Amino acid sequence: MAQQQQRPISNRPISFINRNGLFLLLLALLVLLGVYLPLSESPLFIFQNRTSSSSPPSPSFVVSDWRDYSLAQAAKFVAKNGTVIVCSVSYPFLPFLNNWLISISRQKHQEKVLVIAEDYALLYKVNEKWPGHAVLIPPALDPKAAHHYGSQGFYNLTSRRPQHLLDILELGYNVMYNDVDMVWLQDPFKYLQGGHDVYFMDDMTAIKPLNHSHGLPPSWNGVTYVCSCMIFLRCTSGAKLLLKKWVEEIRAQPWSNTEAKKPHDQPAFNRALRKTTHQVDVYLLPQSAFPSGGLYFKNKKWVSPRAEY
């Protein structure tokens, strides 16, 4: 392919005042302002520093007023309109936490967030950059432990979740729980219709009708598939009953490396839902607004431009 002859670089005019140069300069400024300003107020910048996320910080490098923060103090500090947004996470998941917080900040709800740090490394990291928004409920976990799905480390992390949520309900607050591998594309609070005890997502990959039932989904082969990655709990006796049953179900089936199907918190949550069916007022969130990861990534119809949603 023939190349066009170009003038030597030294002979080319250099000007930022010509029409094209001025347009590009203005465009660059608009892009910079449009990207930097919204993110500069987001939690992403709160957690940026010179340390690597793979190297947990030493407790000695942070002196924080929040080191001995109690759950009651933390919940009181972050609660807005009687509600706390909670995640339970350890230091190895810091990149997920950052991403989740950015999505929440875009919906203007980040001030309600309470990070339940499962190790001191994350407690110091969050409270160093965002004082008051992290609390640790002993005992602390090992910040370097592997938390792969199905491992004992993963079980040790997730099995503590229902007790954390119950403790916050007992303090008198409503609780929205999220796993940190999800993101907010809209404000979820507008979907929390009515005064139900608990709201949750379906975990099935089949697409439901837009007008699907909001009751507890029917079981499949005797098993209910509700996702525990996003739960909203009102401070009611029904919600507390469900969480107590969830704690009982986890304790009744501890983790074991010899079992063919290792237990974790989500099957226990589903068993608790079935066992409290007539005692707890539940609400299945609309699938069109709250797709599970399995639905979003595995069902090709969902992501197809020709899908009905």
From TrEMBL:
Signal peptide: none annotated. Residues 109-302 form the Nucleotide-diphospho-sugar transferase domain. Keywords: Cell wall biogenesis/degradation, Glycosyltransferase, Golgi apparatus, Membrane, Signal-anchor, Transferase, Transmembrane, Transmembrane helix. It is a single-pass type II membrane protein. One of its GO terms (biological process) is rhamnogalacturonan II biosynthetic process. InterPro entries: Nucl-diP-sugar_transferase, Nucleotide-diphossugar_trans, UDP-D-xylose:L-fucose_XylT. GO terms for cellular component: Golgi membrane. The chain crosses the membrane at residues 21-39. Belongs to the glycosyltransferase 77 family. This is Glycosyltransferase. It comes from Raphanus sativus. The gene is LOC108862215.
